[in-house]
Design a protein that fits this description.
five-stranded mixed sheet, Helix Hairpins, single chain, 10 helices, 12 strands, Heat Shock Protein 90
């Protein structure tokens, strides 16, 4: 018993593997064909059962009427009646001997010994003789009951021909088989065409993706603009994903290009200073000056690297954390770190804030405010004024200085990476401060705006809080 079960399990497993390896279209067609086979078989079985029931009911009514008239004639010793067309009869004694019989059944008795014994003891037996398939000659439906005549027990067997009934059922089976086969073929063809039409966009998407995989830039999947079905929405989703991938790739390339371009200069200067120091023996003062210059270059490298990494982190789409923060504490935390540098230059930092609690990412907001203050200290003059206020769900932070302000041709590109005004190109800085400020504002769904005031430059952050 174990061996056949194992063989059947292996057969089913192999069949599943073959089906999974088929193309989706063929699997869909097989599923449609299987479902339609079940539906058609159920419908055909129901129709066949209803027709058979109606034919059997009519045949049984004719047989019952004929049996009653035959039993009444035997009991009253009358002439045996003629039954329906194709009907016949047998009158048997209790031993199974045929006393009277119609022409079609003049041979042996129609009942078996067991059936004869059951009928003589009062049972009524009804059964068919001959099969529907394969075709049997002279099929009958017979009914046998016990009758008495002059105190003698007899058995009256009435039989009606089933030929017309069986022929009608065989014809019905043939027609149902042909109709089911044609319907199954039509449904499979329609299912195949429908599946091909439905999966056509998927194949087009695959070909488009294959083209993209070959490295062709700027291509997108061919999505029809006049539809809004599941496959069309899938195409739009894939195109958005490709947009993000392309933007991510472009950001990565830009990061590498920016880093290589901006790091090259301080690294070259650092190498030149070290080579110069090692070229011949130096005094202690000369070595100290060289180390100070190297320290300046290293600091610039660290500042530039941190700024590039911060920009990359903000641009990567990494979620920021909005938490409740006291606005006054936030601004003071960002500005206090610059007070010593301002004092050394004889400049002042003034802060004006309105009491409020805002929901922002404190880490990035401190970085943005600190960059604005640092930018004002480097490129402006006089007092640096920081003002922050929250009202109507908006947070506005502005940093103003006293000085020449922004050059007119610099303002449109003030927040671009590595963009520096001509006057500031010789001053310290990486050109990434305002770009980082703009990235922080964008990550909070806000904006950054640079402008000139009557007494200097002003940069304002405006974002929801």
């Amino acid at each position: 018993m174990t061996r056949p079960v194992t063989a059947l399990t292996a057969l089913v497993g192999g069949l599943r593997v073959r089906i999974r390896q088929m193309p989706i279209v063929l699997r869909l067609v097989l599923a449609v064909a299987l479902a339609m086979s079940i539906v058609l078989s159920s419908a055909a079985a129901f129709v066949y059962w209803r027709v058979q029931y109606a034919l059997d009911q009519q045949l049984d009514e004719d047989l019952t009427v004929y049996q009653h008239s035959l039993a009444r004639a035997v009991d009253s010793d009358e002439r045996l009646p003629a039954g329906p067309t194709g009907s016949t009869y047998q009158i048997l004694d209790s031993h199974g001997d045929v006393l009277h019989a119609g022409k079609a059944v003049q041979g042996g008795p129609l009942l078996t010994p067991a059936e004869l014994d059951a009928v003589t003891h009062g049972r009524t037996i009804r059964r068919d003789q001959g099969a529907l398939l394969p075709i049997s000659p002279d099929p009958l439906r017979l009914e046998a009951t016990r009758v008495t005549r002059q105190g003698r027990t007899m058995v009256a067997v009435a039989a009606v021909a089933r030929g017309h009934r069986d022929e009608a059922l065989r014809e019905l089976l043939g027609q149902l088989g042909i109709a089911s086969a044609l319907t199954l073929l039509a449904a499979s063809y329609v299912g195949y065409r429908t599946a091909r039409a439905a999966l056509g966009p998927v194949e087009r998407y695959r070909r488009g993706a294959a083209t993209l995989a070959d490295g062709v830039p700027g291509l997108r999947l061919p999505v029809p603009a006049d539809r809004d079905d599941e496959l069309t929405r899938l195409g739009h989703t894939l195109n958005r994903m490709l947009d993000h991938l392309e933007a991510s790739t472009e950001r990565e390339h830009r990061f590498i290009a920016d880093a290589s371009h901006e790091l090259r200069t301080p690294l070259t200067l650092l190498r030149a200073e070290l080579d110069f120091a090692l070229h011949r023996p130096r005094t202690a003062d000369e070595l100290t000056d060289t180390l100070r210059a190297v320290d300046t270059d290293v600091r610039r490298l660290i500042e530039l690297s941190n700024a590039l990494l911060d920009l990359e982190q903000l641009g990567s789409g990494e979620p920021i954390h909005h938490i409740p923060v006291d606005l006054t504490d936030l601004v003071h935390a960002a500005t206090d770190r610059h007070r010593k540098a301002a004092a050394r230059e004889g400049r002042t930092l003034t802060v004006a804030t309105a009491p409020a609690v805002v929901r922002v990412d404190s880490r990035w907001m401190e970085t943005a405010i600190a960059n604005l203050v640092d930018n004002a200290l480097r490129h402006g003059h006089g007092e640096v004024h920081i003002e922050a206020q929250a009202a109507d769900g908006r947070l506005r932070i502005s940093v103003e200085d006293h000085g020449p302000g922004f050059a007119g041709d610099f303002l449109p590109n003030a927040f671009d990476r590595f963009t520096r005004a001509e006057a500031s190109r010789t001053s310290p800085g990486s050109g990434l401060g305002l770009a980082l400020v703009a990235a922080v504002a964008a990550s909070h769904n806000g904006t950054a705006h640079a402008a000139n005031t009557p007494h200097g430059a002003s940069v304002t952050l405006d974002l929801p809080c």
